[in-house]
Amino acid sequence: MLIKARLGDVLKFVRITEPNLKEFLTAAFAKFGVPAVTEGVKVVDSSGTELDDDVFEDVVKDPSHGVLTIKCDTESVSTVPSPEQSGPPSLDSSDSQDTVILSESPPSKRLRLDTEAKHLVESILTKRPGGERIINECNRSKSLTDETRRKMVNILAADMTEKNGTSPPRQVKEMYAQGIVSLFPYLSDPFSRNSYEHYYDGESGTGYLAWRIKTIQRSSARDRRSSSGASSEGASHEDGLGGPAGRREPQFVPETVLSEDECKEAIALMKHSADEDTIKKKTKLTFDFRRNMIHDPQQSSNVLSVFPRFKDVKGLVEQDFVLMFGEDISGKFLEKWTTTFKKKIIQQCRKLPSTSELEDLLLAADPPEDGSEEDIDIGWDTDLSSIFLLLHLIPPSAQGRKRPGKVSASQAEKHLVVFKKAGTNIQEHLDAITTSTQPYLLAVGPKKKALHQFFIILDKNAITCKSSSSLGAFDELFKAHYVFATSYNPMLHNMFTFIQTTVYNIDVGKVKESPRVAEVRARLLH
Question: pLDDT tens across 178-216, in order?
């Protein structure tokens, strides 16, 4: 018996020897190359009445039964129609004309598109010079070096523009990006919606593929007009949603709300109290008042004048951060850095092009086990060195055509930590500041490897850090951005964004990230 079956727009006749439901489903799925399943599948007649196995034979033998429809809502069904399935076959009109429609479920469609994208990228790399080497490197190391990633992007962007012109449609660029992470799962970003946005993000038009295509567009237009704008391996640094300067709903809900007069009374008490417990209690009670002040452009610059005890009472920055995000998020950096990230960052930095600055940091971050380097009186301690290595792994983006332009990781370090020898007059350092700068750490000690005191420098104010370790002080520096709603230094934006989303898990999916941030996250978390 022949029964006409439809899958999407493709018609095929399915032959069965016995008219029973199970055999029919098995034969139909086999005809279309679909795994034979029965769960989640039902057959209905033209009236929408479901057919069970005990009535199937009677119905299909009755010429007046009309069209039979198979509805598939199981996620285990996936199809990839072959080219020869593009049209219905011809058959004598005397044969059975029962019609079966196999509906492709959304998960099945996603799987099919994912497979098609994977085969597309694999085919391109296999045929292009150097492509096989890229495939072999990723299969071997479960990652790609920066140089190899650039080669892969160049190959795929060239193929894309050759086939679709210099302005490929969005869906084409998304297919190539999807194909990359399907072929190389270790390159996928587990924190993004589709896992491939660092290669192409259709919402913002950014990503490695998008930037390469823009470069191709500029090159092709060079003979018609001068190049305008620059798009390099670093996106613009708008804070957008999810940055430290944005308003957010805090975790803390006060049991009692102070009136304005009560807030002023608590503030006056804090300024002159010598009891730290009282100061911390009053600081907590005035949290909402302070947040409103911080987000008021007319008052934000006076916060440390109104609340000067942040400068000398240790732990107030930490307390406000906990009120904003909770204990769990507050502890993530110190919990994860040495156990999850530090060693992997060192491993990734060993693959970067060697420079004297990078080699010094690697030696300091991962000293020889025999202790032979202990007599070397240069370099930072191991924890701070590993943070600087992250800055080399996620370097500063170009600052546009205006100065300072391209900034090296070594130059950017000076905007993160400044070293002063023990005995330095801190006030003299503050007085020497000529312009208002973003927060940075002032590290004090006999030498860089033996630091014992840290200050967060903000608007010519020195906030004493609670921690005497470099890792703890950096944790406080990051939190100070949120406590005082201060945006990241543009030179450190990518690195701090990585810390924000990947380590603290703050505003994941909300904040704008550069593709480099997502790429490094994919490397480290896989």
Answer: 999 999 988 999 888 889 999 999 888 899 999 999 888
202: tokens are: 């259709």
pTM: 0.66
Q: What is the total count of domains within the chain?
A: 4
Which residue, among 65, 52, 68, 62, has the nearest Cα to 6 in the 3D structure?
68
Q: What is the 3-state secondary structure (H, E, C) of 120-138?
A: HHHHHHHHCCCHHHHHHHH
What is the span of the domain harbouring residue 286?
A: 260-324
431-437 long-range Cβ contacts below 8 angstroms, 24+ apart: 431/460, 433/457, 433/460, 436/460, 437/489
Same domain for 339 and 293: no
Same-domain check for residues 162 and 295: no
Classified as helix, coil or strand, 523 is: helix
| Judgement on whether residues 377 and 489 belong to the same structural domain of the protein | yes
Q: Is 470 exposed, middle or buried (0-12, 13-18, 19+ CB in 10 A)?
A: buried
DSSP character string of 68-126: -EEEE--TT------GGGSSPPP--TTS---EEEEPPPHHHHHHHHHHHHHHHHHHHHH
- Indicate the average pLDDT of the chain: 81
Domain match, 363 and 512 both: yes
User: Is 244 contained in some domain?
Assistant: no
**119-128, 242-251, 435-444: least confident range:** 242-251
CA angle 345/404/203 to nearest 5° reads: 65
Q: Are residues 381 and 494 in the same domain?
A: yes
Question: What are 5's strand-pairing partners?
Answer: 12, 100
Q: Enumerate the β-bridge partners of residue 10.
A: 7
Q: If we measure between CA atoms, which residue out of 385, 422, 417, 392 comes closest to residue 407?
A: 392
